[in-house]
Give the backbone structure.
Amino acid sequence: MRTIAVVNQKGGCGKTTTAINASAAFASLGYRVLLIDLDPQAHATMGLGVDPDAQSRTVYEALTNRGVSLSSVTTGTNIEWLDLAPCNVLLAGAELELSGVLGKELLLAKELMSVRERYNLCVIDCPPSLGILTLNALVGGTDVIVPVQVHYYALEGLKRLLETVRIIRDRFPPCSLEILGLLLTFVEDGTVFSREIQQQMRGLFGQLVFDTVIHKTIRLAEAPSAGESVLTYAPESRGAADYRSLVDELLSDAVWT
Amino acid sequence: MRTIAVVNQKGGCGKTTTAINASAAFASLGYRVLLIDLDPQAHATMGLGVDPDAQSRTVYEALTNRGVSLSSVTTGTNIEWLDLAPCNVLLAGAELELSGVLGKELLLAKELMSVRERYNLCVIDCPPSLGILTLNALVGGTDVIVPVQVHYYALEGLKRLLETVRIIRDRFPPCSLEILGLLLTFVEDGTVFSREIQQQMRGLFGQLVFDTVIHKTIRLAEAPSAGESVLTYAPESRGAADYRSLVDELLSDAVWT
Ligand SMILES: Nc1ncnc2c1ncn2[C@@H]1O[C@H](COP(=O)(O)OP(=O)(O)OP(=O)(O)O)[C@@H](O)[C@H]1O
Ligand SMILES: Nc1ncnc2c1ncn2[C@@H]1O[C@H](COP(=O)(O)OP(=O)(O)OP(=O)(O)O)[C@@H](O)[C@H]1O
Ligand SMILES: [Mg+2]
Ligand SMILES: [Mg+2]
């Protein structure tokens, strides 16, 4: 079961939007997908129309309670073939609670065992930090997508993120974490500033940057308020086309299952 | 010395942009301002043209090393009357390092004593989390400004943030933390979606929402790449006008020093 962690410690760069819409695009092609909400803000949960506070069992219980498996906290969504492992604000306590626990970075990896027969693909939405939750996603994952907002601060954090991925690979064999790519987000074709930063990114990272970029569009911002992915909220929109294009690009990689 | 914490656990909602440009606007009026970068991403530091990795002593040392005072890590900036207490990625270690320390939420409050004779105003840029660094800012601060991006997820996190402020006030007397206001950011007058969320915010929070809003403008996104505040980078721009208007609105409050 390929497990894609959507990671960037920079806030507001499009992680949740990418996690939801890429998952939905895979599900629309018939892949059985599990989206794991690993951010205590629970935006992936809300963006799929699920009430975080109405869940009696969430990712938090799965990580901290030995009697609760990840498989038992999954729930269906309004998207066929897409399940969700929701979270809520309780997960914020996990960071502190787990800080003394031996093997704390491996908890999600263990839990992923309980679901890998049920799904073809798992996507993990991470919080804007490189703390214990994101580390769990990186250790448990097989792949990483890094949404990168085309703005001034984009580059700075990337160096540290790529360094963290390297460290994880060394310290947790047989972790074979691969960076699938850097996904440029909030792209505005009309502005010089946006084009310059895009060129700079491609100049520095070459093939690591996806050909697909996600343009800044109103429909992508609106879809969560309808509790839907953009593919159902606005199927003809540029946002929908962009995320379908991302999944096409991912599937065109020969190594994909 | 009024100490304003710029707080919101939501990523990318304009905390750093507000911390830099509000500080610059106060400094342009002759206030002696200290901007404290409390986010290990060091965006406030970079946005003022200071290299985080070139600093031998930063906020990290001031918080974790008894021999280093906050006063000793301050540095001048390219803005008259504005000093900076920079940080860099080392501060990311503080969260874990301090987790066992008794009185860990009070460290910044103690350090602020060492600078209060030198400045009229202190502004603290916080990371996108409600962890130990933000808690230090809330316990050490006298006031809070909450930048709120006019997007779907805006409301959810606010409830938790306002709850946290309440808890801080109860647990750390004589903390008298006041919320100066909610600052709507990334406002786009032209879109229905943006207007609707603005109305919703004002409907729910009334006077707590600043009259001033910060419009989404290219100059605000570009200014950090020049290492300047928008007030010098593009003094005639709407972004500059918006932040001057915010400071005017703050100063029109009779209780201001
Ligand atoms: N391409 C886009 N066009 C317009 N709005 C977008 C786009 N991508 C994301 N948004 C909106 O911008 C805001 C931030 O995006 P998102 O929540 O996906 O970022 P994030 O990286 O998950 O943030 P956080 O760091 O807080 O988890 C959201 O309100 C989202 O709906
Ligand atoms: N009003 C605006 N118009 C255009 N761009 C903006 C505006 N405000 C902020 N930006 C840009 O959007 C990005 C996010 O803003 P900023 O860094 O201030 O948010 P933040 O809340 O500090 O993020 P983080 O949670 O990562 O600390 C930055 O690249 C910034 O330059
Ligand atoms: Mg998110
Ligand atoms: Mg910031």
Observations:
- The first strand of chain B starts at residue 2 and ends at 6.
- Chain B has a mean pLDDT of 92.
- Chain B touches chain A at residues 9-13, 41-43, 46-47, 89, 92, 95-96, 99, 127-131, 149, 151-153, 156-157, 160, 191, 193, 218, 221-222, 224-225 (CB under 8 Å).
- Chain B has twelve helices and seven strands.
